[in-house]
Amino acid sequence: MADMFTSANRSWRLIKASVAVINSDGELLALPLLSGVATALLMAGFVGALWGSGTFATLQQQPGPHMTADLYVWLILFYIVQYFIVYFFNTALVGAALMRLDGHDPTLRSALGLALRRIGPILGYAFISATVGMLLRLLAERLGFLGRIIEMTAGLAWTVATFLVVPVLAAEGIGPVEAIEKSAGLLKQTWGENLIGTAGMSIMFSTIVALVAVVFFGGGTMAMQAGYTTTAIVSYIFGGGIVLGTVLLAATLSAVYQAAVYDFAVTGRPPQGFDRDLIDAAFRAKR
Fold first, then answer.
1. pLDDT tens, 110-130?
2. What percent of the residues of the chain are helix, what percent strand, and what percent coil, each to the nearest 5?
3. How far is CA 146 from the centre of its chain?
4. Which of 6, 81, 107, 194 lies in the 20 to 30 Å Cα band around 43?
């Protein structure tokens, strides 16, 4: 129990250190917002393309939920482009965080410029990640319960092994395969609790979103049913704004934390703004 509270306290301190980095450069929050807008546009374009190509009409004519060859092709393309968008803006965000941790003053333009210079490796990594994701999903669909276990286990291993791929791409600009190997190697060097910050952030922000859903969305629904339409609309808008802000902050904090993990793994020194004792405790060397 004591270890759990110690880990929780360390997570909170790591989060606060990451927040301090964001406070010194609020422009970082714009990058996950741009990523979300680009993803929404991609989704709209994807649905429009399916509708225009007649794929939806073909699916409606078939008995049962069957996947056509055309739909598989569309899904593969969608996955690749979606992954590319996410990794492009994540690379810009992590690159900007690395600049800030190194004492520089990054701008939105410099962050996007860095990602543009890495566009080849980012596209390659997006293709690899999309392929892995599709294969794991196919296994889960074809093998039933066993497939879901394989998907969960292999997916977790893939997530851990690639935890530092984006910082490696941002800082070094090497190819996607080399970046994956470098990511796995860096995590082995500083094993222990080096992923605790990500888990702590995930739990904290998931709790916030759940509370917002109960208070504002649930309260808005009750108000709507009681006939208080204006109150319900205000509650929905306010709750949606909080959720959006929470998602943006969570994405930015995660990127700053990834940058800090990478910086420490490479240099062995605590990044600027992170306490030496905190870093030493959170990133114990593998024995």
1. 889 999 999 999 999 999 998
2. 85, 0, 15
3. 27
4. 107
